[in-house]
TrEMBL record:
<protein>
    <recommendedName>
        <fullName>Photosynthesis system II assembly factor Ycf48/Hcf136-like domain-containing protein</fullName>
    </recommendedName>
</protein>
<dbReference type="InterPro" id="IPR015943">
    <property type="entry name" value="WD40/YVTN_repeat-like_dom_sf"/>
</dbReference>
Length: 206
């Protein structure tokens, strides 16, 4: 399997940690300075959304099915943006993990990668993360889901910046994906994959 990317360089000179899209198809990113940016298609540039950086530094952000913004902070903690109060609110979690990132699958369920490189799936009944272990034996930095995928495959970025595909039907293996990019994060929007490389630049799948 192969997945290659066209190098788009830096967005508005920003060095990137990750990119994502909200439910209204707006492009967002988090820079290496932990600042949050939103793409402005009129000015063809990023707008630094400083209101999200008050008393909170983000490693990454993600949007749930209701278009609410979630963030993993630089301390590995999780928070959700409250549009009414204009502040981040940390949920009450039984035995919270130190997180690298979170992602929402096509059913709207929340997943995470912990600091140990293992994967968790949110259990809303017990208010905790259910440990899924090391997917296919890989230690991970990132996971992503492709929209409309009926199989529920999990795309993986390993701790060596390698790409892989985890098929739940084959739980003992994560299949390696050949790529021209060394990735640190990955997101799928519509038919395209968006990768941020180890040089903080963005690539779009070709």
């Amino acid at each position: 399997m192969e997945m290659n990317f066209k190098d788009r360089g830096f967005l508005s000179t920003w060095h990137l940690n990750m990119v994502t899209f909200d439910r209204e198809d707006n492009l967002w990113c988090v820079g290496t300075s932990n600042n949050i940016g939103k793409w402005n298609s009129r000015t063809f540039g990023l707008v630094d959304k400083k209101e999200y950086n008050q008393s909170w530094d983000s490693k990454m952000i993600a949007f749930d099915k209701s278009n609410a913004m979630w963030s993993v902070g630089t301390k590995g903690n999780l928070a959700k943006w409250n549009t009414t109060t204009g502040a981040w609110e940390e949920p009450d979690i039984e035995k919270p993990w130190d997180l690298k990132m979170i992602a929402f699958d096509n059913s709207g369920e929340m997943w995470c990668v912990g600091e140990k490189g293992n994967v968790g799936k949110w259990n809303p009944i017990d208010n905790k993360w259910d440990d899924q272990g090391d997917l296919g034996g890989w230690k991970l930095d990132w996971i992503a889901f492709r929209p409309g995928d009926p199989r529920g495959d999990i795309y993986c970025v390993g701790t060596e910046s390698n790409l892989g595909l985890y098929d739940p039907k084959f739980p003992n293996d994560t299949f390696h994906i050949e790529s021209n990019f060394e990735c640190k994060s990955l997101y799928f929007h519509e038919i395209f994959g968006y990768c941020v490389g180890t040089k903080d630049n963005m690539g779009v799948s070709i």
